[in-house]
Design a protein that fits this description.
- By secondary structure, the chain is of the alpha/beta class.
- The chain is built from eleven helices and 17 strands.
- Helix content is about 30%, strand content about 25%.
- Strand 4, helix 5 and strand 5 form a beta-alpha-beta unit.
- The radius of gyration is 23 Å and the shape is elongated.
- Bound molecules: ligand LLP.
- Ligand LLP binds next to strand 10, helix 10 and helix 11.
Amino acid sequence: MFDTTTINKFNSIPTPFYYYDLDVLKQTLDAVKKESDKYNFIVHYALKANANNEILNIIKAYHLGADCVSGNEVKKAVECNFAPGHIVFAGVGKSDAEINYALDHDIFCFNCESLQELEVIDELAKAKNKTASIALRINPNVNANTHKYITTGLEENKFGINLWELESVVARLQELSNLKLIGLHFHIGSQITDLTSFKSLCIRVNEIQSWFISKKITIENINVGGGLGVDYHEPDTNRIANFEAYFKLFHDFLEVRPGQKVHFELGRAIVAQCGTLISRVLYIKKGLNTNFAILDAGMTELMRPALYQAYHKIENLKKYQDAGSKNQDEFHKYDVVGPICESSDCFGKAVNLPETFRGDLIALRTAGAYGEVMSSAYNLRDRVKAIYSE
Ligand code: LLP
């Protein structure tokens, strides 16, 4: 990932910046395609993970659909030439303007999360003399066993229509003549590494489908969302997520009815490993019990550690240059922090690094998903830039 030419290039660019290795992205997409095509599964890329034009253009070339959660994401997908017939639009709080925009572009499907939302989409579609295709996002009450902030499929979460509401929602749906029910949608959470959570989802979806069949309602599409996790600890050993096991699990446990299509919405597993946040050490400072390595990147560039105590592997890039030198065996412990005026602006405590000096380049790995898109201008910081491998 970081050969001498690449590091020399980094040295000539002002830090901090995101570096995207497009070969890694393409290898990941090759694996997604190979494994999902085995079962004719349809994969939508979740733009919320990374919405860079370069990245989107590559993903689009692999003929993935687009999973959007705001009007601007729908707009971005349309501008990047994702076919409107392959765009899905989810989110608990779609505004009228966002719905109207999506209606005007005849997107494939609105994933609807409440009864009132269904009524509003029906009304807005009627005003345009259109029929909106919708899927019911059902909260399956399945535990994703992941961080509580990125768990979405439990009744206590705000997402989706709860199972106990289903009867009344389906009854009301019959009266909403400008809506066409084309599918069911589920998403239980993100960074899921224990595949048994997906097995539990399949079992719940099978039960829910049987209920619809008993009501003589045909469901053409089942969308099982995203959530496949990546290895933040060993990004080089496990560069590509285990798409083979993931898709096979749905093939084995999901009861697919004749003619039915199965959809996925993957974000993190597609883009996480291709992105790295590159920054420079500004200062080394002695603390009471530790040394601080103060970087020129902080929570404004990569918010995940501050927000979710998320782990990102931290490397001093000289490890790729001084290979074999004795310096490599001598580790020192540093609290690696950013420059922002918040104590939570810390990327890692007691991190083992070779002796580190002002000016050294530091890599925060596995930052391609939910990194740059969640960056901010807090403290009036410049917005972070991105560079790409050739
Ligand atoms: N579909 C829906 C309805 C979603 O809400 C999400 C993610 C996805 C698909 C894509 O999930 P993925 O395959 O990327 O796990 N900012 C957090 C992650 C938030 C995920 C939100 N929803 C983080 O940095 O970990």
